[in-house]
Amino acid sequence: MAVHRRAYRPYEGPLTSERWRFLVLPRYALQEVFESRLLTAFVVVCFIPFLVEAAAVYTANSPAARALLGIPSQAVDSLEREFFLAALSVQGVLAFFLTAWVAPLLVSPDLVNGALPLYLSRPFTRTEYVLGKTTALLVLLSAVTWVPGLVLFGLQAGLADGWLLPNLRVAGALFAGAWIWIVVLTILGLALSAWVRWRVVATAALFGVLFMGAAFGEVWRGVLGNSWGRLVHLSYLVGVVWRDLFGLHGRPSPVRGMFDERRGAELPVWAAWLGLLAVCALCLWLLDRRLRAREVVS
Asked: What distance in Å separates the CA atoms of residue 98 and residue 102, rounded to the nearest whole number?
């Protein structure tokens, strides 16, 4: 009989508190995600619009910079709520691409490789498993949405005397609006990752949900003459909520494209909120149905 070395030793280090034990999952998830140099480069690229916007804020508030560049003094007046809504919209687009890249890597590999029973056999509940995977995506999306948005707000408030108090609503709208988009993207991305085995297909499915919903909503609007079909148009619903948070309903805005500003908010705000809540509830139900430990018989 072969004699094997008894090299195994039990772990004798400190134990993580049960309350924060789920943070082990996002730590290793983020470590695995950033092993990709291409993804790391893309995260860096996500900050380029913020740097451009910060330069615009500084230039608009610096008489010397405006004189050097030949910009009229009225440029300071352009840094209103529309500017920050446009900045949030740009970062929101980048957050969507980041979700499409990262979300399929979080849950699908665990299900494909039968690792979920191993997780749940440890001191992890299903809720803690989902919370851990969600935290990894929340950290990434926060870094490219509300964090640069609030830094931009702080820069403007520091450079423009008397601007802060009349525009405190902008800071709240940036923070709340970013978190609404982050939660929708995170839950949707995890649900698709749980139900679609292949990463490329899951990414394509996320794009399909966004753009096919937009197409369906516009076809409904064109054929039936009302906008209730836009309840499946996620970016439009988020745009309606964002404009309400910034207090821009009924006012023209320079934001175009993704949030369909050209046609205005035709759905009431309460309908947009209900549409987003329904999408999140459906995705949570799909996650609950999929994330169940099953006995593997070989």
From this structure: 6
CA angle 191, 197, 200 (to 5 degrees): 90
- The pTM assigned to this predicted structure is 0.83
Q: What is the dihedral of CA 65, 66, 67, 68, to 10 degrees?
A: 50
**pLDDT at residue 8 in the model:** 61
Query: Which amino acid is residue 250, in one-letter code?
Result: G
What pLDDT shows up at residue 259? 44
Instruction: Band the pLDDT of 295: cuts 50, 70, 90.
Output: very low
What's the pLDDT score for residue 252? 45
